[in-house]
Design goal:
- The protein is mainly α and 449 residues long.
- Helices cover 55% and strands 5% of the residues.
- Helix 4 runs parallel beside helix 18 and helix 8 packs antiparallel against helix 18.
- The chain is globular.
- It binds acetyl coenzyme *A (ACO).
Length: 449
């Protein structure tokens, strides 16, 4: 007798497949993409702006446009992130809290508001007994995104005002989450280490530290090196927001639009970010480079690197997905500004920490992969934020399991900012689907099938 799961699989493959022809004929924009690869406009925001191309009207054609690749730019509420980071570096201070304030409120804080806000974040870090208990119960699975997701979705049950979408309440919940995410990630990880035989490390958050310092402190058990903490702060700033259309933020906006509570909406963002085509790519890059090192002994050999990458594209190496992780983007073309910045920080840190050969390998892979992908797909495909971020974290002594949770604990800022905006816009997100088998079927009794 045929296994019922196999039978269901066979029918799914048979009946769920829609030909590219039908999709084109019905003018369906799969992935919410226009035929030229640009995104379908589905919303409006005051938060992040992502520029990756210019649309130029074709000469003599009224409604036809060509896509011109341009160097990528990213703005937070109108401020160029490159300039923001430059200022924090110049002033030798932490910027993540200020960026969080900016994204939530739309304005840079005056000094006194900044102090109050940063103090509030520090104060709200401590986990309650109930929150700690959830974490202690979550040691069965190593994946730290699953652990984070479980804790956040459980928080609905620890908040007496969980369901109120009054903006004051949502602001309170947002600040709580921005404060607690890094503490939850670090505590989850310390519990995981313990479950694997390491000594139990109970580290309570310190309210007087910046978010970046406190996270590294909770992982290492001692106050981190100031340069390391500042670089980690910059990495968090670069991951804090990316417009309304990125997969996780759009998920948060979609769930928020139904009236669901803050924890449910943010859990949707975590779920989306865990995917290997989105935030999960930073851990995949690390696995890919590890696999490459196993296969390629001469890191300077362009031929060997190219042959390994070709195997990935042919699904014969790596995770067999055919993806070279850390490359490509739905909006950016010539460059991802975050990748460019992280690369320069990685270069400097590699010299300081003795990782020069490794940096050179990343650099070779970047050059070779971009060219191979461009030749194959007839479009510019460059390194994205995930290509160098994990390498920076590795040099800071952070374990791979935390690369994607770190992305989440920075991006929770953008998610919360968009959630508040979505609640105020008020309209439930409900796009349309075409059902293709138009003829109505008559029910056939079971004995006649
Ligand atoms: N490896 C292999 N092929 C790629 C890659 C890549 N890194 N990037 C793009 N391509 C291919 C696509 O599969 C597509 O081929 P197809 O036409 O045969 O389907 C073609 O190039 C054109 O793709 P795009 O339209 O430019 O990319 P899309 O917008 O569909 O996808 C994505 C963007 C998912 C990021 C893609 O580039 C990818 O899979 N990259 C690898 C995963 C990754 O690094 N993700 C992190 C992105 S950044 C972030 O989310 C934080």
């Amino acid at each position: 007798m045929e296994d019922i799961i196999k039978r269901i699989e066979k029918l799914s493959l048979l009946n769920d497949y829609l030909t590219p022809r039908i999709i084109k004929e019905r003018n369906v924009k799969l992935g919410l993409r226009n035929p030229d690869g640009t995104g379908v406009v589905v919303g409006i925001t005051t938060k992040g702006r992502v520029d990756g191309y210019k649309r130029i009207r074709k000469e003599g054609r009224k409604n036809e446009y060509a896509i011109n690749p341009v160097p990528g730019k990213l703005y937070y509420c109108g401020y160029d992130i490159e300039k923001l980071v430059e200022e924090y570096e110049k002033q030798n201070r932490y910027g993540f809290e200020e960026v969080a304030y900016l994204l939530i409120t739309g304005e840079l804080p005056a000094r006194s508001d900044y102090r109050k806000f940063a103090r509030e974040i520090g104060k709200r870090r401590a986990l309650s007994k109930a929150e700690r208990q959830i974490i202690m119960g979550e040691v069965q699975n190593d994946n730290q995104m699953y652990a984070l997701h479980s804790v956040i979705s459980h928080l609905s049950r620890c908040d007496e005002e969980a369901d109120s979408t009054d903006i004051n309440n949502v602001c309170r919940q947002s600040i709580n989450l921005i404060a607690k995410f890094p503490v939850i990630v670090a505590t989850n990880y310390n519990v995981l280490r313990y479950s694997k035989g390491a000594d139990l490390r109970i580290v309570r958050p310190k309210p007087e530290l910046s978010t970046a310092e406190n996270f590294l402190y909770m992982l290492q058990g001692e106050k981190p090196d100031a340069d390391d903490a500042r670089l980690f702060d910059i990495a968090m700033i670069l991951h804090a927001e990316h417009g309304g259309g990125n997969n996780s933020t759009f998920s948060v906006r979609t769930v928020s639009s139904s009236g669901a509570n803050t924890y449910m909406a943010i859990a949707a963002g975590i779920a989306s970010l865990s995917g290997h085509l989105h935030g999960g790519a930073n851990e995949q890059v690390k696995d890919m480079i590890k696999d490459l090192k196993r296969e390629v002994s001469n890191w300077d050999s362009e031929r060997s690197i190219k042959s390994y990458l070709a195997k990935i594209l042919e699904r014969k190496a790596g995770d067999r997905s055919g993806k070279i992780y850390g490359f490509g983007h739905a909006v950016y073309t010539m460059s991802d500004p975050r990748a460019i910045m992280l690369k320069e920080y990685a270069r400097k840190l590699a010299v300081k920490k003795g990782y020069e050969e490794e940096f050179a390998l990343y650099d070779h892979v970047e050059r070779i992969a971009s060219k191979m992908l461009a030749d194959r797909n007839k479009k510019i495909i460059s390194a994205n934020v995930d290509f160098y971020s994990g390498f920076v974290y590795e040099m800071l002594g952070i374990p791979k399991e935390l690369y994607t949770p770190i992305f989440a604990m920075a991006r929770v800022v953008g998610w919360c900012a968009h959630r508040i905006e979505q609640i105020m816009q008020g309209k439930i997100i409900r796009p349309a689907y075409i059902q293709v088998s138009l003829e109505e079927k008559s029910f056939v009794p079971m004995q006649d099938r």
